[in-house]
Amino acid sequence: MATAAPKPPTRTVRAPDLKAVLNLQFKSKKRLEGRVRWFDKEKGFGKILPLDARSTSVEEEIFVHKNQIEDGPESDNYAALAPGALVSYEMTTQEDGKPCAGNVRVQGLARMVQNGLTQAAGAALSAKEARLRQLLLQGLQSGVFQEKGHKKALMEDGFLQGVAREVGTLGTSGKSAALTLYAVMDGHAGISCSNFVVLNLERNILDSLRDQRKRDANAEQILKSSLLAGFKVTEHSFHQYANKLEGGAGRTWATSGSTCCAACLAGPDEEGRLRLLVANVGDSRAVLGKKDGFAVRLSVDHRPDNAGVLNSKAALWQLSVELTGSLGRFQQQLRYVEIVEQLG
């Protein structure tokens, strides 16, 4: 006798629990994107419209609370929340079970912060550059003392006492710069040469600077070239003028000579700094006095016993310009620059 196979146990299929489905979806931590529709920072909440929303209706908006902002209400994310801001978020639920946006993060925040820092740094740099220009144009103080030798009929020495000049932009820096030139001249065998240098050196340096400042070069290169050219043009012009003189005047100019040690302060350069460059011919010397009481020698003496700077044919000084670049942290280190004659 055949028996019927037992029926399988009956299973009741229930409709999926919506909250369970949502919780499962939230646990995936999938980040979505949207734009802030509005956010009231006083009340601490607002709405986000998903980017994939089918419409812009209120029903599509997602609630967001300040406690669901990444890093909390004191963070840069919270500060950057504004209508239209692009955000990413995770779906979560409030205490009452209603869905809301969680772990909300403003997109591009790092770039926004960096741009803000860059703008702040740029403003600080511009203010510093303005102060440096003001320092050169109005804030530097200098003093000069001369004493004529007992056997000298006239004071044979000369000096330039730092008249500030606007020089426009320097090379690739693109910044409006200023320049101040200080110099001492130790004349000998008369006043002709030292006076000529006093009257012409600064102008020749500035003329050269105007010719070179459009070059595709940095400020230091342009300043070095201008100082070198200014010294060379001054020496050449002196010889040209002396050669045109006749009689006693010609002999007086031909036998006179002078050292020259010049210190040039210019800036701001590409990095917003002042540059200090020293150029010299002969044995006058530039010395930097620092705040800590130490002194730094900035120039190299040119003496007859140094064959590298002597013209063996005419036994005259060759123009040899020693150039010293910028001193780091100029304002912190500089106490005074003293340009003195080297005795002996």
Written account of the structure:
Residues 31-106 form the CSD domain. It contains 7 helices and 17 strands. It has 344 residues and is of the alpha+beta class. The protein folds into 2 domains: 22-109, Nucleic acid-binding proteins (OB fold (Dihydrolipoamide Acetyltransferase, E2P)), CATH 2.40.50; 123-341, Phosphatase 2c, domain 1 (4-Layer Sandwich), CATH 3.60.40. The strands form 5 sheets. The chain has a 5-stranded antiparallel β-sheet. Strands 6, 7, 8, 11 and 12 form a 5-stranded antiparallel β-sheet that branches. It has a 3-stranded antiparallel β-sheet with strand order 14-13-17. Helix 4 (192-212) packs across helix 5 and helix 5 runs antiparallel to helix 6. It has helices at 18-27, 76-80, 109-139, 192-212, 219-244, 247-255, 330-333, and strands at 31-40, 45-50, 62-65, 86-93, 99-106, 158-161, 165-169, 176-185, 187-188, 257-258, 260-267, 275-281, 284-290, 295-297, 310-311, 316-317, 334-341.
